[in-house]
């Protein structure tokens, strides 16, 4: 499995720790930055992360900012990207099962790191159910 990851300054610490954790699990990571806690603009990192998912260069994406909202909104501008802002494991599970989400957006300022890891694990391990959900997912894209 290969995962793209990006964050702004508010998500930098989580991003660094998540990369280390997932790499230790044998997952290949593609880091789109940021590379420090210096203030930056989240779209500069969300767009390339989402593009990697959109272009099938990776299997999934992880985006992190303070609220999770900015990176989530940015990612969802890309056709073929279904980014979901998650704040608990039930949402992480359902967004994969019912929406076939391919990016998880996390709010670093509102969830503990350990819980962020739990959400990522649930997100990555949960398959899309398809079936009745398939036609709905096909209607999401504007193209």
From TrEMBL:
GO molecular function, one term: ribose-5-phosphate isomerase activity
Cross-referenced InterPro entries: RpiB, RpiB_LacA_LacB, RpiB_LacA_LacB_sf
EC number of this enzyme: 5.3.1.6
Keywords assigned by UniProt, alphabetized: Isomerase
NCBIfam families: PRK05571.1 (NF004051), rpiB (TIGR01120), rpiB_lacA_lacB (TIGR00689)
Xref: PANTHER family: DNA DAMAGE-REPAIR_TOLERATION PROTEIN DRT102, RIBOSE-5-PHOSPHATE ISOMERASE B
Record-stated family: Belongs to the LacAB/RpiB family.
This protein's name: Ribose 5-phosphate isomerase B
């Amino acid at each position: 499995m290969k995962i793209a990851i990006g964050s702004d300054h508010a998500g930098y610490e989580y991003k660094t720790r998540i990369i280390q954790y997932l790499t230790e699990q044998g997952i290949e990571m593609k880091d789109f930055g940021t590379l420090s806690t210096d203030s930056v603009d989240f779209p500069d990192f969300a767009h390339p992360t989402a593009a990697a998912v959109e272009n099938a260069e990776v299997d999934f994406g992880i985006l992190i900012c303070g609220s999770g909202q900015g990176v989530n909104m940015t990612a969802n501008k890309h056709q073929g990207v279904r980014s979901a802002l998650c704040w608990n494991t039930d949402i992480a599970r359902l967004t994969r099962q019912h929406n076939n989400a391919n990016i998880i957006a996390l709010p670093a300022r509102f969830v503990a790191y350990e819980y962020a890891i739990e959400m990522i694990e649930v997100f990555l391990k949960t398959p899309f159910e398809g079936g009745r959900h398939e036609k709905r997912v096909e209607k999401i894209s504007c193209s």
